[in-house]
Amino acid sequence: MFLIFSLITLAAYFFLFILSYFWVDLNLTLTSWGPANQFLAWAKNLGYFDRPLSSRLYLAVVLILVSVQIYLLFTKFLFKTPLKKLLLLAGGVILLACLAYPFLSHDLFSYLFDAKIIWHYQQNPYQYSPDHFASDPWLRFMHWTHRTCPYGPTWLVYTLMPGLVSFGRFVINFYGLKLFNGLVFFLSGWLLLKITQNDRRVFAYWFFNPFLLIELLVNAHNDLLMIGSFFAALFFWQSRKRVLGLVAFLFSVAVKFISGFAWPLLFFRRRYFWATLFAAFALTGFAWQINRFQPWYFTWIYLALPFMIMTNFSWLVVFIFQALLLVFKYQLFLATGSWEATAHPLFFRVLLVALGLFFLTLLPVFRRLIGKLFHLSLEGQE
After folding, report:
1. Which candidate, 269, 252, 262, places its Cα nearest to that of 305?
2. Is residue 144 scored above 90 in pLDDT?
3. DSSP for residue 149
4. N or C: which end of the chain has fewer CB within 10 A?
5. How far are the Cα atoms of 94, 156, 185, 212, 330 from residue 220, in angstroms, in the given order?
6. Helices 153-164 + 223-238 axis angle, to 10
7. What predicted TM-score, i.e. pTM, was given to this entire model?
């Protein structure tokens, strides 16, 4: 059974890996090798100029990957399979996701250029934006060249590491950062296993979560380092290594400040309570600012989700919401080539509020409060 499941899972993620190169930026040359360029030319022609077919292929692979995730959640497969085999399979999936092209985001190129401003131009990316270096060939395939670096110093140091060993070559820098991300993703999952005392569901909601794999590894959003550092802080704090825990927490905040709002999970008891409040308030904030909401913002909820009182049904609700994001935000973009077709503000506002309220019902104190209010309303009618 493990062999069959492994082949299906790896085949699906390999197909996602191949599919990602259908949308390589038209101004970007990844290789000079003839056969690879022939494949890329065919793939980009299909991706950009036969959008109905390529977007349907994306939809098909997403549905397969979500089905695999749900299968893991509701069967005994995870509990019957040795941990080492699961981790080995997870490593293969992570590698494929790392090597995929970030076909749904251009942020990775901005990350790389911010670091290049330091290691190549010896300038400060907090003061200089990419468009100050108009002759740089990387600008041909970059977006948002007018903005200075908006991220914390932790992220800049992290992105410098592959840049310093890339010998100035873009491809080494590009794949180097993605492989670094793969290592962080794997270690973050390992930390979750330790924190949750080997809860095998970690494989369903982290290692084989297509939403996280696409957003954090394929698209390579830097939220991964923030989340992974926060997990490290919880692990050290739980292991009574308080100084290391505090350092890891500050490290996380210095990537993106959003993890700073999750500080009660680190310092207070009843972690599930504070985790639930964090998730509910974050979702409310997303709904309030729905026109600024981006799909990968939902990864921030994973600062809290693993530490809430989550039944399998609760995880299923989360997985379905993530699938809706992958379909309504990305499949429609791939089909039309326009982000305007993916807005659906009222639809997602209602879903976000409903999901936040659903999370609150997971708290026993909230359920008791609802019960009392319902009882009082019945007495009032009498």
Report:
1. 262
2. no
3. P
4. C
5. 12, 15, 11, 10, 15
6. 110
7. 0.94
